[in-house]
Amino acid sequence: MSQTIGGRLAYADLLRCTAMLAVIVVHITGGALEASPVGTPDFMVLNVYDGLTHWCVPVFVMLSGMFLLDPKHSLPPSKLFFGHMLRIAAALAVWGTAYALVERVQVHGLSWESVRAALYQELLGNCFLYTSPSPRDRTRARMPSSA
Asked: Do residues 134 and 30 lie in contact, with contact meaning Cβ atoms separated by under 8 Å?
């Protein structure tokens, strides 16, 4: 495997940079795609770009696994859980709930029901979406029907 100057893996750095650019494309096309009427040329072009870049999230998951499972570095389960996973889970819970609450308040106003719904949405309802191809998957499909 080719190494860069700092002893880093060149292919992993290239994959990471390419995946970062793909994430940017996913977010740009995703926002524009939702505003485009289904079946228009704009929708079709944006849909192609959006579909061609959805590989980026699984690549980040695989790169993380590659480095976590490296036999040259020992990572005891306690350090993995308390040093890495617990911090990530806490950050996802706090910020995900905050974003869900802002979205709910914009649509329904501030109430205890909005807070409860945002907590439910983030902590129980959407936990599988962090490795899903797109957050838009929770809404109905927008492709034209073939029927």
From this structure: yes
Give per-10-residue mean pLDDT for the chain (147 aa).
Answer: 74 93 91 87 92 91 85 80 81 81 82 81 62 50 46
How far is residue 91 from each of residues 109, 112, 118, 122, measured CA to CA in Å? 25, 22, 15, 12
The encoded tokens of residue 62 equal 């695989």
Nearest in space to 143 (alpha carbons), one of 22, 33, 8 = 33
Query: Contact at 8 Å (CB) between 122 and 96?
Result: yes
Query: b/e string for 18-51 if b means 16 or more Cβ within 10 A?
Result: ebeebeeebeebbeebeebeeeeeebeebbebbe
Do 61 and 37 meet the contact criterion of CB atoms below 8 Å apart? no
